[in-house]
Amino acid sequence: MDVTLENETMSPKSFFHVLRVALVAFLLTYGAEAAVYSGGVGIEPNPYRIGNAADWATLAYTPGDWDKYFILINDIDFGGAAVTPVGTHDQPFAGALDGDGHVLRNSRILWPDTNYIGLFCALGDGGAISDLAIEEFEVAGYSFVGGLVGQNNGGDIVSCTFTGMVSGNSAFVGGLVGDNREGTVISCYAAGTVAGNSPTFSCGNVGGLVGGNSGDISFCDAEVVFSGNINYVGGLVGQCWTGAITHCQSTGTFSEDVPIIGGLVGTSTYSEITSCHITGPVVGYSVVGGLLGEDLGSEISLCYVTGTVSGNSVEVGGLIGSSNGSIITSCYATGPVIGTSRVGGLVGSASNGTMSSCYAAGTVTGTFYVGGLAGSCGYNETITSCYATGTVTGADYSVGGLVGYLDRGSVSNCYAAGTVTGDDYAVGGLVGRVNGGAVSYCHAGGAVTGDYYVGGLAGYGDLETEVTSCYARGSVGGGTNIGGLVGHLQNGSVSSCYATGAVSGTASTGGLVGTSYGTVTSSYWNRTTTGQETSVGGEGRTTKAMTYPHGANTYVGWAFDTIWTEDRNYDMNDGYPYLLGTPPVPPHPADLDTNFRVGMSEAIAYLTGWQQGSNSMAYAIRAAYLWQNGEAYGYNGENDPPLCWILAL
């Protein structure tokens, strides 16, 4: 039955909400007698004791106690009855509640048209909730909705859990907290379902644990199924802006038609994300990342993803779907990555940022702008000391073992080892197409196949592309404009480079460069192993002249002992010179000085990282195995990581 006030009709739910607000205002204005709980006086040494549902109701309806100390002394089962939240947005709970390991169970808070809804509508600065479990709850609100807290404004939430269902109609919906605004969430967990209820528009900033975060979250986990009309979805956090997330993980079940999804965070802006990992699959429509869906200007370090990441559209990455200005350091992804365009083993699309000391090992499949590490790298993106080892397949153009498309960025001290296949043009063992960028101190070893503009290192170089001190050793095959190092150099330069892999094509095929309008200096190809007697640029040599001790007229002017080194024992690169900063096979991540020995200190450091959540257990076990069995190791590319690192014979 509806209630009519001054010619306006209100639903019973809205009427009772107004009634509650009026009651709170009355109590604040005129005071009330001291509330009665199951003991205590509300101070830290002697907190109020909450032992039953009546005590909880007393707390909810006594705003004068919302700055006092409380402790649960029993589990409380509400028997399916609705409970009234504690606090309001205007007067948040600023006291302290110690759950003391007890459980609040079996209740509902269903206010779908109201903002700031949770067991606590709001937690204020100085407020604290700890050691509390909430089970079998259903919580529904409009915006700022959380199973425990609607909005945390500077409070502390420690060792709390929520299991049940949380839903919202607009934005900032989380399994535990709707919006963590400069608050702290530590050692917390959420499980169940988080949903968007509006049939007309998407509910944004939805997270398994926290909807929106501008505070600190650490040592937390969530296992949540997401449903309904939602976007900007993260397994742990929906949106993080100027916040910090450390030592966290999550497992989400996502829908393949939802855009902007991250296994940990949906969207992040100027935040810090450290030592976090995702092991389960992540699926979505577009802008999908194993860790982050999209990022602007954040610092991401010591994070990893091991599960499959897939999207039905653009910008799909093993770690991040789309990044702009991101600083990505010491991160990796090892699972398969599947999408359409801008698909990368680590990052789908990147610009104006850096990637350093990162790697990707999973297979990557897409259409165009597909790369083993990054699908597309735009203006000013810098990649250093990174590698990719997975097979890369693109159904169209700009496909590369490391980067599909490099636009006025730079790649240095990197390598790619996986097989690369493209069905159209600009296919390269390291980079598919370089558009005015710089590639230096890099190498590629995988077989490369495409239609035209196909190269062992780069398929197509344009707009003053610079390729310096690089080599390619994989086979290269295609139709026209095929080169052992570069398929087509529109303009720009190649210097101090070489190629050795077999090269085959129907026309415009060269041992080093297929076709070129640029310059090639002090660069070489092996006439015997490539099967090519000619090249547009470079000088052909025999195997004897190119391997140690190389001919006097080969590698003229090269910087040996600073950039290059000789393979005197033929045990690193079949006698060919290799780059000091980028060994020809990937070292184990524990091998910090890349000397192909895992010493005791390196193994212990990596094991410590595993215990702290920043390193994979399987990789840590392998590091300990290598150290305990002689330290020296080699690499067998036929085995998947970490078993590819084998004891040296």
How would you summarize what this structure contains?
The protein has 649 residues and is mainly β. Helices cover 9% and strands 44% of the residues.
Give an overview in words.
Among the domains are: 1-31; 391-585, 3 Solenoid (Pectate Lyase C-like); 587-647, no CATH class. Helix content is 9%, strand content 44%. It has an 18-stranded parallel beta sheet. The protein has a 15-stranded parallel beta sheet with strand order 8-12-16-20-24-28-33-38-43-48-53-58-63-68-73, with no helix packed on it. A 14-stranded parallel beta sheet has the order 11-15-19-23-27-32-37-42-47-52-57-62-67-72, with no helix packed on it. The longest helix is centred in the first third of the chain and has 19 residues, at 12-30. Strand 3 (48-50), helix 2 and strand 4 form a beta-alpha-beta unit. The chain has 6 helices and 80 strands. With 649 residues, it is mainly beta. Helix 5 packs antiparallel against helix 6 (617-628). The protein is elongated and about 95 Å long. Mean pLDDT is 92; it is low at 1-33.
